[in-house]
Amino acid sequence: MSGSAGECALSVIVPLYNEEACVRPLHEALVRVMDRLTDRYELIFVDDGSTDRTFEYAAELARQGRHLKVVKFRRNYGQTPAMAAGIDLARGDILITMDGDLQNDPADIPAFIDKMQEGYDIVVGWRHKRQDKLITRKIPSRIANWLIGKVTGVPIKDNGCSLKAYRARVIKEVPLYSEMHRFIPAMASVAGARIAEIKVNHHPRRFGVSKYGLSRIYKVLLDLLAIKTLISFSSRPFLWFVLLSVPAAVVSLVALFFSLRAFIAPEVEATVVMPGVFILFSALTTFLIFCGALGELIYKTGDIDLFHLSSLTVEVHRPGEQAHGSGSGA
């Protein structure tokens, strides 16, 4: 890969949560693959508040090698904040994300690099022979992938696969929070990113237990609603908020009609209900229109920082350095 010796070409980001048995074999596999690709790489392990010895083992490896950095959260925040922390710290031109449970195969990384060199901005892994439980993992995943594709218009076969490659200039501009890591292709598509999908290996879990199950379905649905709103409203927020205000405006006008009718026609009994409905829905209409105006202003003049790394991370281990504080309140 091109570039000077002092530059970092590749960054591999791995969130870890109670994966003490996986840390060493994962590190060995990554180093073996990356050393064949380039000397200009870095590995970033993000310990997402593990309660076992995951961080201890990872920090020991960081002291022994020159490519590994380790980030520690004080408590468990979730996979997306862990990925976002690693992405913020990464210095590579191309960023690779993957799970830390040894189910993703580091041997697939060269295929991602080859695909990126064809001009793509994001390359997504597809676990076409997924080694997970059918009822609790595979069937919900297939339904979710179909639903995400229909709602977002980005037909990715496996949004939940953590093994992905990104151009740094693209992924660093995408706000990540909640469970948004699986929607990165859809969010990046708003900016016209070129996206490809390749088949990858998927191994049965060798150590520990899965951290995910059916309980995350409602989070995915809520995030999908947020993403659909973002995609639809991103370019013309004022128009969409005005359209949202139309039903409220219609209700307020109907309520105003019946309120005035009670004053004009003596035979109609006057009540406080319709004037109250008119005031409430008129206020809602005004609120939505002003939200649209504010959204249009933000879209035209700037953006909002939805994720700030310094509020989460607490320790960063780099080769040859001692642990040091790097944030507050994590």
Protein described:
The protein has two domains: 224 residues, Alpha-Beta Complex (Spore Coat Polysaccharide Biosynthesis Protein SpsA, Chain A), CATH 3.90.550; 65 residues. Helix 1 packs parallel to helix 2 and helix 9 packs antiparallel against helix 10. It has ten helices and eight strands. 46% of the residues lie in helices and 13% in strands. The chain is elongated.
What structural keywords apply?
about 45% helix; Spore Coat Polysaccharide Biosynthesis Protein SpsA, Chain A; alpha/beta; disordered N terminus; 2 domains; 10 helices; disordered C terminus; about 325 residues; elongated
Give the helices and strands, then pairings.
Elements: E1 10-16, H1 20-37, E2 41-47, H2 54-64, E3 68-73, H3 79-89, E4 94-97, H4 109-116, E5 122-126, H5 134-152, E6 164-167, H6 168-171, H7 184-189, E7 195-199, H8 217-233, H9 237-264, H10 273-301, E8 313-317
Parallel strand pairs: 1-2, 1-4, 2-3, 5-7
Antiparallel strand pairs: 3-8, 4-6, 5-6
Mean pLDDT: 79
- What is the CATH topology classification name of the largest domain? Spore Coat Polysaccharide Biosynthesis Protein SpsA, Chain A
State the CATH architecture of the largest domain. Alpha-Beta Complex
The CATH superfamily title of the largest domain: Spore Coat Polysaccharide Biosynthesis Protein SpsA, Chain A
Mind summarizing the main beta sheet? 8 strands, mixed
The percent of residues in helical segments reads 40-55%
Structural class: alpha/beta
Instruction: Catalogue the unreliable spans.
Output: 2-6, 304-316, 322-330
Strand order of the largest sheet: 7-5-6-4-1-2-3-8
Q: Strand share of the residues? A: 5-15%
Distance, first to last CA: 37 Å
State the CATH class of the largest domain.
Alpha Beta
How many beta-strand segments?
8
Elements, N to C (H/E):
EHEHEHEHEHEHHEHHHE
